[in-house]
Amino acid sequence: MQLTFLGAAGTVTGSKYLLEGGGKRVLIDCGLFQGLKELRLRNWEAPPVHPGTLDAVILTHAHLDHSGYLPRLVASGFKGAIWSTRGTRDLAAILLPDSAFLQEEDARHANKRRFSKHSPALPLYTKVDVEAALALFQTVEFDETIELGGMRIRLSPAGHLLGAACVHVEADGTDVLFSGDVGRPSDPLMRAPRPVVGARNLVVESTYGNRRHERSDPGEQLGTVLARVLGRGGIVMIPAFAVGRSQAMLLLIARLKASGTIPDVPVYLNSPMAIDATGIYRAHSDEHRISAEECEVMCRAATYVHTAEESKALNKLTGPMILIAGSGMMTGGRILHHLVAFAPDPNNALLLVGYQAAGTRGEAIDLGADEVKIHGDYVPVLCERLRIDGMSGHADYTEIGDWLDAMSVRPAAVYVTHGDPPAADAFRRYLGDRFGWKAVIPKHGDTVTLC
Question: Please, are residues 100 and 32 in contact by the beta-carbon 8 Å criterion?
Fold first, then answer.
């Protein structure tokens, strides 16, 4: 088998791997590049492999940095099957249309305000492209084998997100394991990633390759910061990924209210996509930790904000209140309008509860930017900035190490991907120190022959 790294090589976004073997060509993941402009521009280039030559796409999970390029691939000529778990398919059915909507809205806004260098500004893809991509999905159960010519493919639970999977592929007398995004053993929502047998070749993520999560209870951390800001009448803005993080926040806020740790203030979930995703958790109870009763409590923990008019009305309210809105890295979505309204007030707070990739507004604010550009204008950020690191859905480097240590088959070749350069290099060295593995960090476009 040959493996070509078409994304997530030297960066934490754009996961995309071309695997050739058994007479077939498949993509493992098909993600969008996000963050730095030089990365985002890759989304606009011609597809890195001719879409018509691909037999299938295998998705590890539904997050856009793993699935968000699919509509562009289909619009460019891909006609094969898109294989995923049921959970991934269900989440992609809300994530991808929302992605198209935001891109179409951004293009319309850019044309109206004339702040784009392109005339006219165009979306990367449209809702029509998304519908064509969703029609190609085929679902598979965990541990069920997909037979593609001489390839045998199996997906196993990775935690992290509903439907998230590790992908094991056998062909041409060898095999390879793609970790996907590995979940945490102590995630408040998702079950721990299941141990895997291993493979001769390993492609492993390194998002938190140079960091350890705090071992303190994220619920206690959240209660402390919310009680303080709400106690002074402030508004707490929480930019959260619509799938996973938003539901975890609702669960913890419901628990904090029930215990009396925070006052019973209004909570708004201002993300139609997150609203839909919250309902999907009811249908996948076998993948998460919470009971049916607590799942219902989580789903009722906030007022759902559906329309743009309802969203705009929130900006006229006063605190105390909690606003949860997408997107998690503030690259788009309704959180931007709340930042315009509330970030200039020192009485309010912006709470970061997830990873902020290089080049995003989230990273800029996290690093102390006094202002950020939103829809062509600069907005001062004078509100209090807060962070809770324990909410990440990614395992840290020691947690991934423990997961790898349970493998009975040790890899002969290890490729470290899906991490910013400092994180990937630290994780490469960690694997060498702990296991004696000579891991490498592939460059974008590298091709290797699997051993």
Answer: no
